[in-house]
TrEMBL record:
Domain of life: Bacteria
Keywords: ATP-binding, Kinase, Magnesium, Metal-binding, Nucleotide-binding, Pyruvate, Transferase
InterPro entries attached to this UniProt entry: ATP_grasp_subdomain_1, PEP_synth, PPDK_AMP/ATP-bd
UniProt source species: Halalkalibaculum roseum
EC numbers: 2.7.9.2
Upper taxonomic lineage: Bacteria, Pseudomonadati, Balneolota, Balneolia, Balneolales
Family statement drawn from the similarity comment of this UniProt entry: Belongs to the PEP-utilizing enzyme family.
Protein name: Phosphoenolpyruvate synthase
Amino acid sequence: MITTSGTIKVSLPVLLFLFLAAPLWAQKTESATIKKRIDAYKEDPRGPYKDLRWFCPDGSVVPPQERCPQRGGKQRARYKDEVVTLQKTNHLFLGQILATTDYQSFWDTANNHSRLKQYQLEQYLRSIDNGWILRKAQFYRGAIQAEDESAWGIDFFNQLLSDDQVLRQHFFLIRQAAKDIPHRGDVNQAQLMRSQSQVIAEQYPPFMDLRIKIHGQPQESDIEKVLTFKRQHAAKMNTETVEQLDELVATMRDFFHPDKKQRLREYTSQLPASSPLKNSLTNFIGTSLEQESPGDRIAAYADLLFVIRNNILKENNAAARLTLLDISNYLEEQIYIDAANWQPANLKELLRNIFVLGKAGTGAGYIELWEWQQISPQLKPTESEALTIEALNRYMQLARSQVEWGTGTVKAVYQETVTLFQGFEPLAHGFIDDRIRSSALLPLGTNVSRLGDFIAEQSGLNNKVLGIANQSQIRGLNPGFAFGELVVVSGSPDEIEVSSDKIYVFERPPSDLKPVAGIATVSEGNLVSHVQLLARNLGIPNAVLSNFNLEELKSHSGEMVFYAVSRKGTVIMKPASEMNAREKALFTVKTRNEDKISVPVENIDLNQTSVLDLRDVRSANSGKVYGPKAANLGQLKSTFPENVVEGLVLPFGIFRKHMEQQMPGQNQSYWQFLNETFEQAEKMRNNGTSETEVENFQIQKLGILREAIKKMPLLPAFEEELSRRFESILGKPMGEVPVFIRSDTNMEDLKDFTGAGLNLTVFNVLEKNKIIQGIKDVWASPYTDRSFRWRQKYLLNPENVYPSLLIIPSVDVDYSGVLITKGVSSGNSGDLTIAFSRGAGGAVDGQVAESYLIMPSGEAVLIAPSREPYYNVLPLAGGLQKKTAAFDQAILNKKNMDAIRELANTVKKVLPNTPGIGSEGPYDIELGFKNDKLWLFQVRPFVENKKAASSAYLESITPKIGRNKKIKLSTKL
């Protein structure tokens, strides 16, 4: 109630209710509940809306029969209460009406522009699903006012485009948004055409062949095919489907509009006379559109797209910038139309086609300008009459990279939003594919595949993967062979429970992958992530393929297959029934000990139970007193004292001393429990128990041990020494310096086993109690399911694991990554491979990192740019924060490259002669940069599977290519 003083008086029961209800208000709504609501909205005449109101300039809201006190009010629908609740609890915006929406809230910077992307995704769902949640509400008169939506769109873009930095960093997203947010009354004809054809095919399956044609390679001649189909099937279709065919034909006629000049003149007339691009556009309309050859027209479109992208920031007028984006979108649409008619007759024309379409993709924002500058010199049409097979292969790798980078941009921008919607609407999965198929990337990918097929035919280098199409888009990463059930996983792989005897195809590799027989991924992450290093180390066949390949392989999921990747990257996958005798012989039963190694434990010194200073640690004691991380980092500290942080090392002896304590609930120590587990496992084997049962028994027992170690009390004397040494070494007491706590066992960085990323690292922990808990968590991590399974796969004595710990202060690096002192992709010992991500820790975790191959000459060849939308920041208060990334600038600069080369040269000279290093190289080095200063965090041997690399069978499936064989560019296709 309201008191006479004007304050609100609330009774105790009401206060109690509000207190209890508050957590419920903040609780997220489950996807299943959202799905039920959406199904209801589809049948509701008002959809997600509850009524109509006037929204007035003064902030008041009045019923529709009234009027606002001032002019300028907007009439639109109000959202249902549960729709408003979803906005607050799930940051989910359904049935968005733009009019009266706050511009900054819609741009949604704090949530990586999620609200804008949700609007785009919903427009797609409405187009393919008969209005989606507005199925019945499409006829709710007054709910949405088209003129108000368009006016809002113009104002929104005018505000957005006035900011140079926003446009530079988000060019792709803003350009895509201009296709969906109303501002000129235009319709996205390409999307509408695909949506209409999909709806017809779902209602009348005989239309499916035409639907596939219209989705993949639409041509003006398809209009007549649709009309012919209508005449032949009219008697079998209902009236609604016939009408939908008529609507499709109308859309296709609009799409293939012949008067391009008139459309472009309309756009150009909207530019101010002072526009720096107005003359270029006027000249383009007067000359380039007259080209008769579709190839020449597309080249002209691509040039203009590129000019607009390069010069749009020189245009000072926000409205003119919006017009340029509209022209850019229109030009890409014309490329999409004309590309089906550009059929290169010979190799020279095909190479020109790929260069032109790559330039168009850059102009359209799929590829960044700095990336195009890196690769365009190698893709530019040559004046030579012939090229060698080797040169053509290099060209194809670069051309294929463009497609991967371009599709990677679409995924990086939209995947998070698609994943959000997939929880309650499976149709959302098609959004990214729709964006790619309506872009210049589609004809580019088609022609890159054609080049791959041509090179394969000329060189005899051919993939053989279950008879699917576009096999030239598949390339091997790690050599090896496997036999097992094929499992194709679309969507997130993180919740998939993998099995070591199966072969998995993922959209992206999970960062904590357990052992598998073989893998293939749409996104390779990067060549030197922990997953890739483990796969390379253990000879697990690994390949990268396209999204289209993954979709085709879905029909083979569940089949038993043979899978092999050669040293040169050829890939074979065939049904088990087609395996030859030699392939079957590869999988004859082997003894458990074959091809495994023993970790030497006889030299371990457990008497060292004091906390050590990293400055006093050296490689000579690696695997004896402490693990190789600490040993090698201490060695680096002595060589590069200004580039390595201070640190504490907890040797093996401290862990072992704690393990001698009584284990709660057991009549024995932690150490006795551990050894008894492995003794029982060996007895089970001797009694004929299957290896699977033995492994499951061990994992169950180790799970009990792991949880007990996490709760283990620290010895008082050790805890006191830790506090004292922490302050003396790091300069401040525990609780004032954020640190990393890294596992450092005797079972990693061995000569033949890397163990990369198997155990826990505690990131940027500040509080003393969290550091104490972090020590116990890291001690427990070697006994996780994943860590044990990998060790079990390769080591004879995985039970003899001793963890030491490395505690180092956090460095909030601007970017971090990995250096391999050899060419991972080239195989050349003189090359360097580097992969970097923004922030801390991304490259080693398998992010799509910025990767280069650095030649002995100093030339840096871009292998892949980063496509990670988020990166880690390490605040002084501890913990991790995520920030959003833009892709318009390279991560590494020339100064960084020079520092990396200098580091590599020093490491190659110093480490092979250092006692205890145990390797002459190559080396795997983790490092980072803060304000261009290089920081070193780890060095380990770079371990590859020599057996896989030298396997006679793998050698036999790699055709001997005459790399110097020349192919005339006039060769017919």
